[in-house]
User: Fold this.
Amino acid sequence: MSLLRRLVGRDLSAMAASPGEWLMPLAFFLLVAMLLPFAIGPEPRLLARLAPGILWVGALLASLMPVSTLFARDSADGTLDQLLVRGVAAETLALARMLALWLGFGAPLLLAAPLAALLLGMESDVLLRLLPGLAAGALGLSALAVVAASVTLGARGGGGLVALLTIPLAIPLLLFGSRPMEAGALGLAIAAALVLAAIAPFAAGAALRASRS
Amino acid sequence: MAATDFHALANPLRFQRFATIATPWLVLAGLGFLAVGLFIGLFVAPPDYLQGEVVRILYIHVPSAWFALGGYLGMALSALAARVWRHPLADLSVRAIAPVGALFAFLCLVTGSIWGRPTWGTWWVWDGRLTSMLVLFLLYLGVIALIHLHEDKAKGLKMAGYLAIVGTINLPIIKFSVEWWNTLHQPASIRISGSSIHPEMLTPLLLSAMGFLLLFAGIVLIRMRALIAEQRLEARALRRAARAG
Assistant:
């Protein structure tokens, strides 16, 4: 357990050291929330109705941004090899990366969500019901980001591909998460996120091992 | 058919021999079943009392949906077999199945769209089943793209296999979520003349499905033979280069 905590801590301090890594997705998320009113018009009732969906689409697209750097740096400077040679399970590394991303991407996202909700005129009770789903959803999105990062590790290019790999798998999260006022949706969003979080470390761990051969 | 028979086919040479004989039979039998099924479906079977003649597209639409889904499952099982038993041909069959399954999913989407135009009055509705087929098509595209993204082909196949396995675990969730979402927002969508299909329509459907299945297997075998040949060519080129150097 302490190994996992150290790994998560290492990933988080690396994120803190390069603020662009967590600020960029955040800025992207807020930009989506800001752009949509320009595209669909300033009518407050329409905006408030669309707001949960817009926030979720923004969060989903923002979660694609960190994918290209998730394992690339550790792989390039040999840290990944060192950790695996030392006997750290690839699954543990993947789990740590997922948890670190959840904290480093999800927490700022939750802080930015009220601002985005304000811009779109979302009711506060809708926001209060949206946030827990977004918190769980960020875990599911982090899980997908870790899987996408590990299976594309060492591949040429792949920026556009990450979206293709991630988005179909993220559809249940989006469906359940963006309906905060509908009965049962929150529970299903959490369940969908937990399933992804449960599979991701194993799939990503196996892919990390395969990427070294 | 004992498990050992299949293990014998794991040997690429023996597999080649088996595939060379089986391919023409599968393709011919597939075309035969398809021809009979479509003939009965198009000319003999009665039109639907509600939808009329347009319902006949079902004899292509439904089998392609079945085997697009079945193909994904087969692909994921191959990927699993490749990882668990280091089966030399299982990785290749992932690559062999993926584009065929994607084609079937595409066929299902196109025929569904054509079917939707006269019955629903539009080319596309966010119907639960159509939407989950669209997601399945995207999952296939992801696997195909990932295979070719890696410079090292063996690595690309492994990575695509992991993605296919994750996709398979998610497939029921996606299907459930899409149906949940759809039934919530759109009351009962059109179903094939009620809950059950009349035997006069079921017979051509099953014949056509048999044809699709045999054709699917035949095309996958052709692709596997081509992929094995490609591997051999590359190995030979490497040997020649080594001798020349």
